[in-house]
Amino acid sequence: MVGGCARRSRPLCRLSPRSAHPGYLLLHQMPKARKPPTPPKHCIFCDLPKKMSDEHIWGKWIKDYIRADRKKHHIHLTRIPSPKSPNITELRIRAGDPLSANVHVVCIDCNSTWMSRIQQETKPILIPLFQSKTTGLGPKAQAQLALWCTMATMTGEFIDRDPLGQGVTLAERQFFRQQSEIPPNWRIWIARYRRYKWKGEWIHLTVPILGPEDVPGIQPGDSAKPNTQTTTFVIGELYVHVMSSSGHPDLTAKWNWPAFSRLTRLLIQIWPPKESFIAWPPESLTDHDADTIPTLFSNVIDAASRSLLGRRIF
Ligand SMILES: [Zn+2]
User: Fold this and answer.
1) How far apart (Å, rounded) are the C-alpha atoms in residues 139 and 129?
2) Which of the residues in the chain have pLDDT under 70?
3) SS3 letters for 237-280?
4) Which of 113, 127, 308, 314 is 20 to 30 A (C-alpha) from 136?
5) Hey, how many other C-beta atoms are within 10 angstroms of the C-beta on 299?
6) Residue range 106-152, pLDDT digits in tens
7) How close is the Cα of 44 to the center of ligand 1, in Å?
8) Omega before 17 cis (within 30°)?
9) How far does residue 39's CA lie from ligand 1's centre (Å)?
């Protein structure tokens, strides 16, 4: 034999080509590496690891009463993440109609029991408000409507998956589920809004309000858990604005809209209840009013959180 490689004189293996190939055996006979099991999701209300449902934030039934055929919608998120850091403001454009928004953070048990009851009991109150039909809201209807607004606010926070986008605490959600009551330090207003050009659908602000004792330990770049939020949403011609704080109760309790402004007249507080009767429909907000309401609180927070030198101090 001259040069070259010696050809094997041994006959080819009679086993099937697949099993004869050592590499093949190695790859295919090894047990598959198992993915570590994903930890079960906990329901945001009962905090139990249960099977999650598709929770429609505003209720699936709404689409029977309001057109829901838009291809996209806007959500505005503002987070004040930490002391000494700038606000993060985001405008996101999401596919689909805003009324189709759903989240996967509520268990089937919660969704099909007490949450479904709130939807069903509020439905007859909401329909004339969405459509600006003549109606009246007594104390019982206002309290029921406030429960629905609270539920939508609590679930709607999870549109944003970032934990810094959630200003309602687990304790507040558990209180709401267990007591069927709105947690302390929540305020809820409604108004009528005939949309012209303003594009807001769901506007959400979260901020950590810290006591003086919390501030020294926090460094620039740290993120503190938010404990205060405002949520604004529009469904049909109903405009809802919700404010809550478990970190600085006085902030919400003492909040006032600018004196003698249109807003003091057009925004009607339903929680805590103030009016013995609300005649509907009232005068509509303008685009400017609708845009001003969610920004006033964040402007006040922003101004209050800066020192005289212009630095953020909380
Ligand atoms: Zn649950």
Assistant:
1) 16
2) 1-39, 68-69, 71, 73-75, 80-87, 90, 92-98, 211-223, 303-314
3) CEEEEEEEECCCHHHHHCCCCCCCCHHHHHCEEEECCCCCCEEE
4) 113
5) 10
6) 999 999 999 999 999 999 999 999 999 999 999 999 999 999 999 99
7) 7
8) no
9) 16
Give pLDDT, residue 28: 45
Closest-CA residue to 255 (of 240, 266, 242): 242
Beta bridge partners of 188: 242, 271
Residue (of 266, 259, 312) closest to 289 by Cα position: 266
- CA distances from residue 250 to 58, 76, 90, 247, 258 in whole angstroms, order as listed: 29, 26, 28, 9, 17
d(CA 147, CA 181): 7
CA of 310 to the centre of ligand 1 (A): 44
Distance 108 CA to ligand 1 centre (A): 7
Distance in Å, CA 115 to ligand 1 centroid: 10
Q: Where are the domains of the chain?
A: 33-304
- What is the model's pLDDT at position 247? 83
Q: What is the pLDDT of residue 313?
A: 43
Q: How many residues would you count in the chain?
A: 314
pLDDT in tens, 209-232: 776 666 656 666 666 788 899 999
C-alpha 162 – ligand 1 centre gap (Å): 20
CB count within 10 Å of CB 107 equals 23
| Interatomic CA distance for residues 165 and 183, integer angstroms | 19
Task: Give Cα separations from 282 to 16, 132, 134, 160, 237 (angstroms).
Answer: 83, 9, 9, 32, 11
Place of tokens 């291809």: 71
pLDDT at 69: 66
